[in-house]
Amino acid sequence: MLTAILGALGVITAGYTTVYVNDFRKNRDASKANVFKSGLVIGFITDFLDAIGVGSFATTTAILKFSKKVHVPDKLLPGTLNVAHALPMITQAFLSLNAISVDITTLICMIVSAVVGSWIGAGIISKLPEKKVQLTMGVALAGTAVLLVLGQLGLMPSGGEAMGLTGGKLIVGIVGNFILGALMTAGIGLYAPCMAMIALLGMNPKAAFPIMMGACAFVGPIASTKFVKEGAYEREVSMGITIGGVIGSVLALLFVTNMPVYWLKWLVVLVVVYTSVTMFKAAMAKEVETQTEAKAS
């Protein structure tokens, strides 16, 4: 069954890669070569960190907001994050899914629910006005920061020994991953909240890895295909992040083990909180601008 899952993932990956590369080739802006190069560095750093457990969405958002060389409009951030990191997440899944054995029914159900949620979420997020995107990402980043702090302080549930779910707990897990799949399209990473949910349901924390990596590997290309077709992402920086991210993921998973990330995660918390505040301020400024224009007219 795991072979079938990996085979399906291979087919989806091939289809997504074709759509992504064709769109990039047809619409590439040669004047943004430096943006592409910056993306290579951003992708290498963020997906290297992602593979060792720090995360990529929040860190990428922060880097893009701070960067003076790369400008991504807030409205395009969710699409850019999903498109840019889809193939690196798939790379991580292929390298990790065989390492931990988890109940196959639980794995399939939670992957499918996350995929359905992401497909619905991507269609909504890609059409939202910039202010709502800013508010959504502000809330998402704040939630990510809270989960990171709870984890750092040892206040997250430790989980149990189960490697699968049944009955009501399985239903809760399916609904939860559906919501997390939808939120992923808004720019909130699935890893941290998925790990928290699995622990709350009494599963072994190790079971989170194949579930969250498998879910992200399927969610990424399916949601991102919709963003690509809508043109709701920044092409040059996304392709750069993708290539750099695949390299960073492979190096981290093959050559880096037990890297201390405690203080690095506290730094990420500070950066994520600052970025969340920046998003809220931008949304409020947009509201003031809209009201001023309405009064002028």
Automatic annotation (TrEMBL):
Segments traversing the membrane: 41-64, 104-125, 137-158, 170-201, 207-225, 237-256, 262-280
Keywords annotated in UniProt: Cell membrane, Membrane, Transmembrane, Transmembrane helix
Subcellular location(s) per record: Cell membrane; Membrane
Transmembrane listed as a keyword: yes
Topology with respect to the bilayer: Multi-pass membrane protein
Short name of any one Pfam family annotated for the protein: TauE
Chief place of localization: membrane
Protein family according to the UniProt entry: Belongs to the 4-toluene sulfonate uptake permease (TSUP) (TC 2.A.102) family.
Name the record gives this protein: Probable membrane transporter protein
